[in-house]
Amino acid sequence: MDVVKREHGETMENAVTTLEWDDEPPVSTSVHAMLSPPPAHCTADVWEHFGFPLSESGAVDRTVTVCRVCDVRIKYYNTTNMRKHLQRWHPDVFGSGGGGGYDLGVGGAPTGTVPGARPEHEQPPGVPAVFKRQRLAARREQELTEKVGRFLALEMRPRIVDNVGFQDLIQFLEPKYQLPPRLHFSERVIPDLYAKVASAVNEELERAASVALSSEVWTSGTAERCVTVAAHFVTAGWKLERFVLRTRPLDGGPPPPPAAAQEGAARVVDILAATAAEWNLHRPHGYIPLVTDGPGAAAGTVVGAPRESVLRPRIGCFAHALNRAAQRGLQVPALARLLAEVRRTVGFFRRSVAAMLVLNGRQRALGLPVRELAVDAPGRWSSAYEMLECYVEQYPAIVASVLSEEVLRDLFHELPPLVDETLADAEDVCAALEPVMWVTRALCEEKGPTVSTVYPYTRRVVEAMAPERGDSELVRDVKKAVRGGVERRHAAADVEDFLKESTVLDARFKSHLDDATRLLCRRSLVRKTVGLHEALRPDGRAKRDAAGDRRASGSPAEERKRGGAEGRAGDVRCSGTAANGLRDQVLAEMELYEQEEPIALDEDPLDWWAGHEFKFPQLALAAKHYLGVPGTCVPSEWVFTGAGDIVTARRAHITVDEVDRLVFLGNNLR
10 Å Cβ neighbour count for 419? Predict the structure, then answer.
């Protein structure tokens, strides 16, 4: 739009500048007395606010028009420039005077009647009227709707569309966008997004040679129990992937009594089997490893479900097992009394501001870390350990604070007596449980702990909990309780064998087994690796990346060209394959693998295999099969914690399929 602006100190004839849409509004210098009205044939409503300028001689200049509100001069071709100027700078004046409403060219609809436009009283303040009445292009509107649907799916909160604050936010960000109603998202946008993501997930699962399952039973806000199933596998790029597949309700109400536990377990097994069939997870080798745990008898009986099922081996969640074993130790009567005394002391300082200020001063004076005393949380044994550890560390500052006059005047009777025996017992318990805490922190620090960590970590805890000469009675009782809880967790023979074999294929822990166990695992791994290849090759279900297929089918000359250790390994593989077949090839790779140096505990075994797949192409398939099984379902449990908020008292009528889609999208959208 061409506009002529009158600047201060200049005549209208030479004050020519071009205003852009983002310029500031012009400063008015009235020239209304020098304006000529339009001819009689000009009947548009905009002429109420415009006129033609007059020269000093009285001649009318019909090449420009002048706004009667702000004195801006606009080149005159037709009324479009004038109308846009009024819409941009004077919507209130133009909308309320003259010709009233005006056509914006949106389907011929007059002002205020644009299809889908919000009523004027519902429009957010401060938005120009022209933008309130226009509509977006269809493509842009569809993009915004899809983005809003993606947000609702990620947050698992479709009801937020009905929130007035959310609607105002959307209108402020894009005034021309009309937010569809909630039913549109629930019945069209989210189901379409689910179908799209489900197709992508199915393609990823089809490319996986082996898939493991994990399940968790969780309780919604309406006390309805549900089970959610997730799939785990190692990708072609040696990354541990997880997808939530299905969420289905269990029988409502609290966990069933022991007499009805088997019925609840059967329901869980049915859901797992239906999920495996629906997503086509069955592989030619015939079984799917399962990691599960949860509250009540249902989860426990899943672990002990019939052996003829393809869901085997059934591995209990190691993180849950470790936490429950440690909780057994905390329930030793002497330790429970010790924790109660420490909890009272910590609670006193956390409640009293004056006592806390005194404690901080003593911490600085004694050179101790200045921090708040830790307190334990129900259900997390590590919080009790951290409370004792902090108590031992801050004990000098606690004693010095208690002896100060400020604290003596502040409800001193609430504090338990601070005696040396309490400190000594706390130090002994911390020293005894330190290996258990190390394992707990190691599991928490790993992004995706695999099943290969279960056996070495279990052995470490069992060995650390062995009684020693000089242990106090309290320490002996705590060790006995923890050791008993850990040892009996994985009692099934097939589970023990699977855990040991996965440990051998983990480059961090392969040397943690004794010679006899390592020899047995070696024989079993060779046999099972050959079985995997024989089962997967005929129908091509092992859809590895093209490079891996070329490596497996390379000629002897191509193998030798790789040079160094990889070339020598290729010679062994090729000669073994030609002479004795697949079994000798796997055996040769196993011998070379055992000669490799173990890696550090903080390294990722999947990264190691990604760099050595050329050297061990046959064992690599077995490594993906074993290391794709998670060692714990804790990451899945974190996922399901948010899912429990979907079904609440205000959303009690949400359907099963809606819950399933929301949990699926909330965890699988990338």
Answer: 10
